[in-house]
């Protein structure tokens, strides 16, 4: 299966699939989702902003996500995984508090005192650079849904098939370009998949405003 050159090219290809969405707000999950979202927002003539999310990690192995939280929303847990690990949401309360603080820091860094755009009654496109477990995307979609938009589309270049299927219950539409059978990690489907910094995110948002 052909790789995406980079996030920008993936965003261009996604934008072609989203041209029928009228007058949307585009919300990107930082950091990588912002680079995918910029070409989409430009093609649709739409405002671009970030929706900050944080993974809630399993304390002994923080890379293992047992849940996630998005700004404006409550923590969303993988209860099946928590039970398998012999844990409850209360077991990771300290992790949730830490991630809330980091989420607040990133919101301040990316948006300053500006609030999220008004979403009630609007078409909203939520963008990320790929879906592995889908925990942060699920938290983001639920936070957006709480703002009562008219319709929510999740747009990603690539995702694990099972994850994409499960997220169809969280959005009105899921637009995904590739769902490979041998999915192992998002980065394997890009030729260039550099880690972005906060400064990169701010530059991309500034380009969107210009």
TrEMBL record:
InterPro entries from the UniProt entry: PRTase-like (IPR029057), PRTase_dom (IPR000836)
Domain Phosphoribosyltransferase: 10-173
Record-linked Pfam families: Pribosyltran (PF00156)
Organism whose genome encodes this protein: Nonomuraea jabiensis
Gene3D superfamilies: 3.40.50.2020, PRTase-like
Domain of life: Bacteria
Protein name as annotated: Putative phosphoribosyl transferase
Keywords carried by this UniProt record: Transferase
Molecular functions per Gene Ontology: transferase activity
């Amino acid at each position: 299966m052909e790789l995406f050159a980079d996030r920008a090219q993936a965003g261009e290809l996604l934008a072609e699939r989203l041209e029928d969405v009228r007058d949307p707000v585009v919300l990107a999950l930082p950091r990588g989702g912002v680079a995918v979202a910029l070409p989409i927002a430009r093609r649709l003539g739409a405002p671009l902003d970030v929706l900050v999310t944080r993974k809630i990690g399993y304390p002994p192995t923080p890379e293992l996500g047992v849940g996630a939280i998005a700004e404006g929303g409550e923590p969303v847990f993988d209860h099946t995984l928590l039970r398998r690990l012999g844990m409850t949401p209360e077991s990771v309360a300290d992790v949730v508090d830490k991630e809330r603080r980091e989420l607040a820091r990133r919101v301040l860094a990316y948006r300053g005192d500006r609030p999220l755009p008004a979403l009630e009654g609007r078409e909203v496109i939520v963008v990320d650079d790929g879906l592995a477990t889908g925990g942060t995307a699920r938290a983001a979609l639920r936070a957006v849904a709480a703002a009562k938009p008219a319709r929510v589309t999740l747009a990603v270049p690539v995702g694990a098939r099972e994850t994409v299927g499960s997220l169809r219950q969280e959005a009105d539409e899921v637009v995904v370009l590739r769902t490979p059978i041998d999915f192992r990690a998002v980065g394997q489907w890009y030729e260039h998949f550099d880690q972005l910094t906060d400064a990169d995110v701010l530059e991309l948002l500034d380009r969107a405003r210009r």
